[in-house]
Amino acid sequence: MLAPEVIRKKRDGGTLTGQEIAFLVGGITDGGLSDAQVGALAMAFFLRGLEPEERLTLTTAMRDSGSVLEWDLDQPVLDKHSTGGVGDKVSLMLAPILAAAGAAVPMISGRGLGHTGGTLDKLDSIPGYTSVPATEVIKRVVREVGCAIVGQTSDLAPADRRLYAVRDATGTVESIPLIVASILSKKLAEGLNSLVLDVKTGSGAFMAERDDAFALATALTEVANGAGVSTVALVTDMNEVLGTTAGNALEVREAVHYLTGAAREPRLHEVTVALAAAALVQSRLSADEESARAKVEEVLASGAAAERFGAMVAALGGPADFMENPVLPEASVTRPVAPERPGYVTSVDTRAVGLVVTGLGGNRRREDDQIDPGVGLSQIAPIGAQVGPDTPLAIVHARGDSSAAEAATALLSAVTIGAEPPAERPVLLGRV
C-alpha cells in the first residue's frame, strides 16, 4: 500500500478497510509514515470522522502496536479511566478499594496538561515512588498487592504515543474517534476483563457540554465492549472542584484522609463509591449495585483499602509507613482567600480554578514543564457554601508572596458569590 493513497481515501470521505488501518498504524509505530503523513492522517480523521467499525479497528490495531499484558490470576482484572478534571483524585482511592474487594487493578495513568491534574503527577509527590516502573514490576506488584497505579511503559501502545504528540502539534486533539482510540488502546493493552469510565462534563471538563460528554461515553463503551472488555461509563459533573483540594501533594494527602476515614468530602465520596460499585458489578465480583456499594463501604470501614494503598506505595519505592506518616512536599507560603462581603458560592469557573493551580506551578503549561508538587489550593468551599471575610473560599499554597497574591486575585475572579444559596445539583448525571 501507498500511504498517500490511503490518506487520500479517508480525506475524500471513504471508509478504510481493516488492512488499510493496520498498515497506517504499523507506519505510525515503526516510522514508515513521516510526521507530515501522520499529521495529514490525523486531520483527515478529525474532519471526516470514523465509522463505528473503523473506530474499533483503529483502537485494537493501536493496542496491538506493542505488548499486551497477560495475567494468570484467579481474580478479574479491571481498571478505571477518567477524562480529567480539577481536583479529581478518585483513582488514588479507587484502585486500592477495588483491590481490597478482590480485583486485580493494573491502572495505567497519565500526566496532567493545561488546567487538569494528572494522577502520575500526584503520585510523583510521594518520596521514592516509582511511577513508571518496568512491565515486570507492574505485574509483580499487582500480583502481590492487588493494584499498581503507574505510567505507560514504552512497550504499551507505542502508536498512541506518537499519534498523540502529532495531534497535539496539529490541532486535532478534540476528535472523538481519536480520543477513543487513544484512551482505549492503552487500557486494552492492560489485558483487562472489565473497565469503568468517568466521563466528565462542565466548566472544568474537556467536554464542557453535556451532549458531547454523553457522545464520548457512548463511543468509548461501544468500542471497549466491541473489543471484548465489559465496560460501563458514568457521566459526572465537573462544574466545581471534586473534593476539597487541587494540587498534587495536597490531593494525595486528601486521598490518605479519605482512605483512613479522617475526612470524606460528600461529592468525592459519591463519585468514588459509584465508580467502584459499577466496576464490581461489571466484573461480577458483586451481583448487584446494592451489594457492590456495601462491599465498598466495608473495605473502607475495615481499613483494608487503606492498607492496600500503603502496600502499593511501599512496593513501588515509597515509604513503608506512608499511611501513618504521609510526609509530602509543602509550599512555603499559605494564604486564605476570602471575599469582601459574606454570601453563598453560587457558581465556579472550574477551568479557571485549575489554571490558578497551573499559575502556581502545580500543572504544566507545556509537556516539558517541571511541576512544583507542594503548591495548590486546600479547604476549597463547594458550591452552596457560605463564605465571607472570616470564612475563606480556599487556602492558597504558594512558593512566594507575589505568587500567592496573583492566585488569590484569580481565584476570586473564578467564583461567583450570591445572596441566596443555589439549588442543589447532582454529581452523577447518567450511565452509558
Description:
This protein has 432 residues and is α/β, with parallel strands linked by helices. The chain has 3 domains: 3-63, Transferase, Pyrimidine Nucleoside Phosphorylase, Chain A, domain 3; 78-315, Pyrimidine Nucleoside Phosphorylase, Chain A, domain 2; 333-418, Pyrimidine nucleoside phosphorylase-like, C-terminal domain (Aldehyde Oxidoreductase, domain 3). It has helices spanning 3-11, 18-30, 35-48, 52-63, 90-100, 119-123, 135-145, 158-170, 176-188, 210-226, 248-260, 266-282, 289-301, 304-315, 350-360, 401-414; strands spanning 78-82, 105-109, 147-151, 194-201, 230-237, 333-337, 343-348, 376-378, 386-387, 394-398, 415-418, 428-431. The strands form 4 sheets. The protein has a 4-stranded mixed β-sheet with strand order 1-4-5-12, with helices on both faces. It has a 3-stranded antiparallel β-sheet with strand order 6-10-8, sandwiched between helices. The protein has a 3-stranded antiparallel β-sheet with strand order 9-7-11. Strand 4 (194-201), helix 10 (210-226) and strand 5 (230-237) form a beta-alpha-beta unit. Helix 4 runs parallel beside helix 9 (176-188), helix 8 (158-170) packs antiparallel against helix 9 and helix 9 crosses helix 10. The mean pLDDT is 95.
